[in-house]
Amino acid sequence: MVEVLFMLNELESLIRKLENRSDNWVVRRDAAEALGKVAHAALAALVAHRSDADMDVQLQVERSLEGLRASTAAHGGDP
């Protein structure tokens, strides 16, 4: 659980850096790049486990993917 909280703190830090318009553009660009890499890796992992042998894992993967689809749709279809 500690690792999850650490990862969430790191993600929130990257998001704050990206949103901070007074930060140097390099910092903001690097934050965007890191967030994109995390998003890509997370999506690839979820898609890879859509047919996991464990039904509970499968259900959560589908819920997570549905949440991503809904979020994407709410932002005009752009990821």
Overview of this protein structure:
By secondary structure, the chain is mostly helical. Helices cover 78% and strands 0% of the residues. The protein contains 3 helices and no strands. The protein has helices at residues 2-19, 25-48, 55-74. Helix 1 packs across helix 2. The model has no long low-confidence stretch (mean pLDDT 94).
Q: Would you kindly provide a brief summary of this structure?
A:
This protein has 79 residues and is mainly α. It has three helices and no strands.
Q: Helical content, roughly?
A: over 70%
Tell me the series of helices and strands, N- to C-terminal.
HHH
Quaternary state reads: single chain
Give Rg in angstroms: 15 Å
Number of helices: 3
Shape from CA axes? globular
SSE layout:
Blueprint: H1 2-19, H2 25-48, H3 55-74
Helix pairs in contact: 1-2
List keywords for this structure.
79 residues, mainly alpha, 3 helices
